[in-house]
Amino acid sequence: MKSGNSNSSNSIGSDDINGTDSILMDDIKRVAEQVDAFILSNLKGEPLKLYEASLHYIKSGGKRLRPYIVVRCSELLNGSMYKALPIAGAVEMIHNFTLVHDDIMDNDELRHGVPTVHREYGLAYGVLAGDLLLIEAFNTVVRHGKSVGLSPESVSRIMGVLADACKELSEGQALDMELAARKDLPSEAEYLNMINKKTASLFYSSCIAGALTITTDDHILERIGRFGRGIGVAFQLIDDLIGVMGDSSVTKKPVGNDIREGKKTMPLLLGLKRCRDDERARMLSILGADVRYEDIAYMIDILTKLGIEREVRGMAEHHISSAVKSLEEIDGRSDVKEMLVSLARFIVRRDL
């Protein structure tokens, strides 16, 4: 079903939260299955151990939000899964490249309940697996872009967008490490600049790359890019909230790693600014230390008393509202637009 009037927000402004989430999750799962099948059928070679390491996180599952965005941003403009699938696969490979290398830099042992790549296959294979994923992502755009009918201009621009994303991702990771190593507390603006690069850049590029399978209209690309930036920043704000205050039995993510690594995320910045002097002194002594369970529990208790979850979710909501406004300015399929708005709202509602 195609949109008659993209400026009418009534159809996308009044969700039944539970029903919408269920429909959205089913939709994401359908796309994820096709993206996984595409990657598994194309990422093959020898030595076998290298390719097994590269596919380790793909085979362990995941929502595949970024490739989902690629597909839906193509379909928003009357594109198709067929045209978007290779680009979606490439984006997921880039995302997995960042996960593999981030886990090495953070010396993490688990990701979503499975051993990290470098723990399972060794450090050298972890580095090589990440490199291979990055190389194959760009190979995929070139090799399969032409076969699904993308123009040379579209392929070239998608390559450029993804290359820019990789540059920003690297800059963001370096900024993250620098902020963690600093003795002083960064400003909120410094933190937001870091997550804009480290996280929002790939959400932005996913939107742009999906749209480029159909159009090169800069007016459309600018608005769809703003949508991606907004949901990317919101995603990281909630991810950082989960990283500090989340229940690992619910989120399947280790709680306390950010504290151990001394990462000065928004929940901690706000807590340190709002708490009493004695509380701040203890929180700073815990940050970046080999903390015990009771240390993490203490910090969570302080952040909870200060209402930090509500405040961070409010920040994320602000970015989502701006993102949705940009999306509503695009003339596209109303049914796809509804799903993208549902995704944006789901990002903020994620449980701790």
Fold and architecture overview:
By secondary structure, the protein is mainly α. The protein has one domain: Farnesyl Diphosphate Synthase, CATH 1.10.600. Helices cover 76% and strands 1% of the residues. It is built from 18 helices and two strands. Helix 2 crosses helix 18 (334-349) and helix 6 (81-106) runs antiparallel to helix 10. The longest helix is centred in the middle third of the chain and has 30 residues, at 152-181. It is globular. It starts with 9 loop residues before the first helix and ends with a helix. The model is unreliable at 1-17 (pLDDT under 50).
Brief sketch in words of this structure:
By secondary structure, the protein is mainly α.
